[in-house]
Amino acid sequence: MKVHIIVCFALVAGSMALASEGKKPYKGYKVYRVEYETDDDYFALAELRQDFDVFHVSAEDHYLDILIPPEKDDFFKSFIEKHHYNFYVLQEDVEGLIRQEEIELGL
């Protein structure tokens, strides 16, 4: 739960900075957690780390959290399934989370 809060805070902070610069919203973006078993698996995930925003990596617990834009969702899922990694959605609606946080913070 603590990690989820940290991930969400990073998303909100980053989105506020982007919003102030007039950047695009996060409509349709999701945060996935990808679990891996070995160091080799971790290094194989380097391809994803180059193409997407990775918010949290836990070498001890063998997972990483990745922000995926909607237009790359199918590519991401096929890559993960092809390599037989376990994954699940941490945050289904990043834009909704950002809006909720902005409301709570009075922004």
Q: Mind explaining what this structure looks like?
A:
This protein is α+β, with helices and mostly antiparallel strands. It has a single domain (2-105), classed as Metallocarboxypeptidase-like (Alpha-Beta Plaits, 2-Layer Sandwich). It has 5 helices and 4 strands; from the N terminus they run αβααββαβα. The protein has helices spanning 2-20, 39-44, 46-51, 73-82, 94-105; strands at residues 30-35, 53-58, 63-68, 86-91. A 4-stranded antiparallel sheet has the order 2-3-1-4, sandwiched between helices. Strand 2 (53-58) and strand 3 form a beta hairpin. Helix 1 (2-20) crosses helix 5. The longest helix has 19 residues, at 2-20. It starts with a helix and ends with a helix. The model has no long low-confidence stretch (mean pLDDT 80).
Strand order of the largest sheet: 2-3-1-4
Query: What is the molecular shape?
Result: elongated
What number of structural domains do the residues give?
Answer: 1
**CATH homolog superfamily:** Metallocarboxypeptidase-like
Radius of gyration: 14 Å
Number of helices: 5
Main β-sheet description:
4 strands, antiparallel
Strand-pairing-aware structural class? alpha+beta
H/E element sequence? HEHHEEHEH
DSSP summary, beta strand count: 4
Instruction: Indicate the proportion of strand residues.
Output: 15-25%
CATH architecture: 2-Layer Sandwich
**What value does the average pLDDT take?**
80
And the CATH topology? Alpha-Beta Plaits
Straight-line distance between termini? 25 Å
Uncertain residue segments: none
Fold topology:
Blueprint: H1 2-20, E1 30-35, H2 39-44, H3 46-51, E2 53-58, E3 63-68, H4 73-82, E4 86-91, H5 94-105
